[in-house]
Amino acid sequence: MGAELRASEGIQRSPRVTFYFAGRPVQGHEGESVAAALYAAGIRHLRDAPRDGAPRGMFCAMGICQECLVEIDGHRLEACRANVTAGLDVKQVTSESSDGL
């Protein structure tokens, strides 16, 4: 994306680490939310809606709307409620894998 979207002036951040989203390496700061790290990396499409397959992504950023649902270690959870750690493997939820939500 080019421009850094995270505030940086006067802020001490945790170490920058690499995690993976849909097999793609992403840089984030350890402990920040997965949703914030993906957003800062320019990734907005986190899952497909179960009914019509429309793209969904971070909306409320606090776990209420469930629009940022992803799969981490075989468990579905909101990306805004999961923390970045080195090597974390985050998968996109597709309309095919959303059956029964």
Helix percentage = under 10%
Radius of gyration, taken over Cα atoms and rounded to an integer in Å = 13 Å
Assign an overall shape. Answer: globular
Largest sheet: 5 strands, mixed
Give the helices and strands as they follow along the chain: EEHEEEEE
- CATH T-level topology: Ubiquitin-like (UB roll)
Descriptive notes:
The protein has 101 residues and is mostly beta strands. The chain has one domain: Roll (Ubiquitin-like (UB roll)), CATH 3.10.20. The N and C termini lie far apart (32 Å). The chain has a five-stranded mixed β-sheet, with helices on one face. It has a two-stranded antiparallel sheet with strand order 3-4. It has one helix spanning 34-40; strands at residues 16-21, 24-29, 47-48, 55-56, 69-72, 75-78, 89-92. It is built from one helix and seven strands. Helix content is 7%, strand content 28%.
Keywords:
7% helix; single chain; five-stranded mixed β-sheet; 101 residues; mainly beta
Blueprint of the fold:
Blueprint (H helix, E strand, L loop, with lengths): L15 E6 L2 E6 L4 H7 L6 E2 L6 E2 L12 E4 L2 E4 L10 E4 L9
Parallel strand pairs: 1-7
Antiparallel strand pairs: 1-2, 3-4, 5-6, 5-7
Write a brief caption for the model.
The protein is mainly beta and 101 residues long. Helices cover 7% and strands 28% of the residues.
